[in-house]
Task: inverse folding
């Protein structure tokens, strides 16, 4: 990969790169981790998520929690989707199923852990959250992916499984 893609700012963040770099990043298959809530808060601009998505650049998302934004992936997914749509001025710029994939398998891939985790498959570590489908945010939905991205929150989590072991059980609360 060209060295210019590893240049970070004083906070360790990769600045938004030039329009001519998109094809090189896509061709190299280099994952990009978007922390779009922090980008917006720091007035860094919005990453061109729809362009990354269209070009097939491997995406992941993070909270970039350097005390700027809360480490809440539900809020991050919602903002990621909304900012992609707002920046592109297209309601179909990105679908919620892709957003969930970028929040899960995308992160594992960006960290080089995609062979071991990031999706529920035989041979991979079971790491997932279970949501309460009866919650006000999820019940009666016509599109579960949209509901998870735009409505679900930490309060909807009923179980967390990490490396095959349940570490949080709130089913009987």
Result:
């Amino acid at each position: 990969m060209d060295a210019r893609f590893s240049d970070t700012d004083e906070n360790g963040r990769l600045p938004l790169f030039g329009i001519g770099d998109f094809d090189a990043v896509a061709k190299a298959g280099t994952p990009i981790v978007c922390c779009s809530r922090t980008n917006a808060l720091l007035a860094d601009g919005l990453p061109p998520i729809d362009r990354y998505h269209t070009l097939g650049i491997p995406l992941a998302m993070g909270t970039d929690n350097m005390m700027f934004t809360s480490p809440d992936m539900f809020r991050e997914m919602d903002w990621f989707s909304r900012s992609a749509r707002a920046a592109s001025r297209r309601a179909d710029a990105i679908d919620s199923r892709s957003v969930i994939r970028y929040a899960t398998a995308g992160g594992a891939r960006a960290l080089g852990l995609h062979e071991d985790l990031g999706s529920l498959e035989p041979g991979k570590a079971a790491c997932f959250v279970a949501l309460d489908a009866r919650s006000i945010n999820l019940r009666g939905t016509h599109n579960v992916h949209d509901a998870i991205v735009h409505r679900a929150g930490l309060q909807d989590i009923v179980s967390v499984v990490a490396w095959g072991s349940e570490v949080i059980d709130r089913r009987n609360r």
